[in-house]
Amino acid sequence: MTRRLVSLPIIAAGLLLSLPTAGRPEIADRGQEVRELTRRIESLADKEPTLNSIETKLRLSELLQQTRPALANRLLVESLEQLRSHKDLRPEDDLARSLLSLAPVEGERVLLSLDNKSAAYGAVIRYWLMRNELDRSVALYRETQNAGIRGLRIETDLLEAVVSRHPEASAGLFRDIVAAFPPEKPTSMDVWQMLICVSIMIVSDPNDADAAIEKILPLLDPSALAPGSSEIKAKYRVGNEEFRTASTQETLLFRVAVYLHALDPAAYARLRPRLGSWEKLVAGITDVQAAKAAAEPSSYTYWKPHAPPPSKAEPPSDFEKWAIPDSLAWIREKADPDSRLMLLQYLLSRGGLSSAQQHQIAQEALAAVNDSPPGPGRCDT
After folding, report:
1. At how many degrees (to 10) do helices 248-263 and 206-216 cross?
2. Which of 57, 104, 172, 376 stands the most exposed, by the fewest C-beta atoms within 10 Å?
3. 57 burial class (0-12, 13-18, 19+ CB within 10 angstroms)?
4. How far apart are alpha carbons 36 and 16 in whole angstroms?
């Protein structure tokens, strides 16, 4: 078992530092409690993998901005220094969101100086998209193009935002995305993301959509994809008929065939022998609007090959209605280690908790972190 995102439950305990003193007569020495809890949180953070440690300090800094600004600033400065001295880190979205909310200019500068440019730029662009800073997001994306940085996994979110807010600029951005595809050693998810971009643009820009499909065609061969690519299966509906694909190649093949039948009949004819029983379904799709609808999966799943199955320990269906002591007792006695921290975080997110209840849950979170065995940190998805 590995620790997974333990910084969030640790930060849950940090809520105790920002609770008002009023209404908590059980606390005799507020200053002593703050110092002790701060020490415990920082001690745990320092034992974590570096990324988890940094995120823990950043999230705690966010919590303490109003109540303990000096401590919040110290944690922010320490986090920036850790990032500057660990250029090989792969920043994730949660870390970038916390850092950029606290220090937008310096935080961006430090993140973009890391060695893993695709992860850093991707996280920063997603943050600015979340803040509706579309011009900044597009500018950063074009920086990556000029620098030859690939594999950001931001294209679909960026394109959807531009189509929604600046449709006149969407064709130019789409051409840039197509020009940069495929990245070096493309994965199945790279192809899938490009197919989503095609779906976004196929009606308004069919010529560039066709150019994107031409780049995808050679990647339908499993040997063309990077080893260890995610497995993708989907459920499609054409008219009254619904079916599920049995492999990644089928999932990609059907979607490409539907698009090609409407965009490029000659290219579709070369693909036709591979369709088997799907040929009759595809034959009835003759225009791009129908192709867009038919190629949109009603659902899909993806996972890493050989990845461990997700935890199956789930609380009872009425768990959210239980009293806090009953919920904590169930978590303590029956939840498996992988789900215990997540459930405690869920409890802490409930509305209407008293200070004493928050205190109790946070203490359970700290105990759960202490009891969990060490591991390499996050599991990349």
Report:
1. 140
2. 376
3. buried
4. 11
In sequence order, the 6+-apart residues with CB closer than 8 A to the CB of 294 are 236, 237, 238, 258, 281, 285
Query: Taking a C-beta distance cutoff of 8 angstroms, is the pair 17, 38 a contact?
Result: yes
Report residue 376: phi and psi, to 5°: -80, 5
The H or E element containing residue 288 is helix 288-294
Distance CA 270, CA 82 (A): 54
The overall average pLDDT reported for the chain is: 83
Residue 220 corresponds to which amino acid?
Answer: L
3-state secondary structure of 259: helix
| CA–CA distance, 156 with 153 (Å, rounded to integer) | 8
- The DSSP call for residue 185 is S
Beta strands, E only, 96-213: none
Q: What mean pLDDT comes out for the span 322-342? A: 81
Q: Are 341 and 368 in contact (CB under 8 A)?
A: yes
Identify residue 308 by its one-letter amino acid code: P
Per-position DSSP letters for 46-59, written without gaps between them: HHS-HHHHHHHHHH
Residue 48 identity (one-letter amino acid): E
pLDDT at 225 over 80: yes
- 309 pLDDT exceeds 60? no
Burial class (CB in 10 A: 0-12, 13-18, 19+), 131: middle
Cβ(47)–Cβ(375) below 8 Å: no
